[in-house]
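DM from R.C. (forwarded with permission)

"hey, sorry to bug you on a friday — could you get me a structure for this? deadline for the figure draft is monday and I only need the backbone to look sensible"
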Amino acid sequence: MRPFFIDALVMLLNKIGGLLNEFISIIVFSLLDLLDFLLSHVYKALDLLIESEWKSRDSSNIPVPESKSLVRITCSKQQLEEISDTLYARPTLLSKLTISSSETGNQSNPKFTLGFRTLPSPRWSDCHCKKCTSWCCSMKETLFVKSITSQEVQEDVVFIHGFISSSALWTETLFPVFSQKARSKYRMLAFDLLGFGRSPKPADSLYTLSEHLDMIHDSVLRPYNVKSYHIVAHSMGCLLALALAAASPSSIKSLTLIAPPCQPPGSEEDAMRRLAPRRVWPLLSFGVSVACWYEHISRTICLVICKNHRIWEFILKVVTANRLRIRLIEAFFLHTHNAAWHTLHNVICGTSRKMGEYLEKVRKQSKFPITIIHGEKDVLVPIECCYNVQSRVPRSKLRVLHKRDHLTVIVGRRHALAQELEEIWNSCE
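My reply, with the result:
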């Protein structure tokens, strides 16, 4: 048993560390507020210069899809309601400057602007490689879908990846290790969400919850004639999975949620503050805070990483020969800033006000089994989010895995997770 003075000393050091973290955070984020404001004007000038030049020259050199259904900002009442308040109003120490920058930055505010603007897809700050722009050359504006099927298939399983990820999360980890019996019995469908991976990345889309759900229906459920199915979802994909389950509970056979970011009901700003508390420590929280609060800083990071992803991929292949690691990191690069920024605010933050309604519908209108899996060391999604789901849907089963984080809850236990999923699906018979 430790002496009392040691416990008191530890408490004192923790308190000093907390105060120091707050003090440094105030200074750092004040400087970031100013930097983001300055960058907003830099990007405004560059957008006007480069994209006005794009409009004046022959656009046949840039692949643009025939249909404009994906590349426009509509202003229906339903879509306006789905736009998160945090997308354009993020109160900071320099809130006046921040609000001014968001109104004059690279995105016009659809709450006050009617109609739509024509922007190049991809934009100048996005990658123009064949892999990233393959959707522009296709006549079909559908999601990229990878499936495993056989002649004996009896049931469907839909896999939904999380934020800044792709179908590779499933196809490179679980698909190869499912048993032969499962591969012959279940048709497994994994797809890249709108704006990510090899799916369309329209420059003027708002990436609202409805847009994501509509694309899933139009690209996966309807074309593959999926009537009744199991869902396996990770991170942000859990929000889409719950929305699908709430909209059509009779179609769901089972629901497996891995690290669901289902926050308690509240405003979008409360959700964003819980997700990104504007602290420099721990470093992961600092990174999330920068991504959530600073549109133009995050665009700069995306410009350096995503636009030049082929360079980073080459370096990665030199550094490591681990194929799984390479494929998962490659998936991280394949998105645009516009897609990530709008999805982050309109889906992850914006669904906080709807999540209670979704969970209530799932509780009252369905009986399918719900399994929640969470990593003990997950610092991105607090365990309270899982408790929130379990408290609202008491029949759900929660498993907290020792020494697993947000990603290793899948990647670090592929065979075990595949076996667990098969058991869940078989139990539904």
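R.C.: lifesaver. The beta strands are 145-148, 155-160, 186-191, 229-234, 252-258, 370-375, 397-401.
me: no worries. The longest helix spans residues 4-56.
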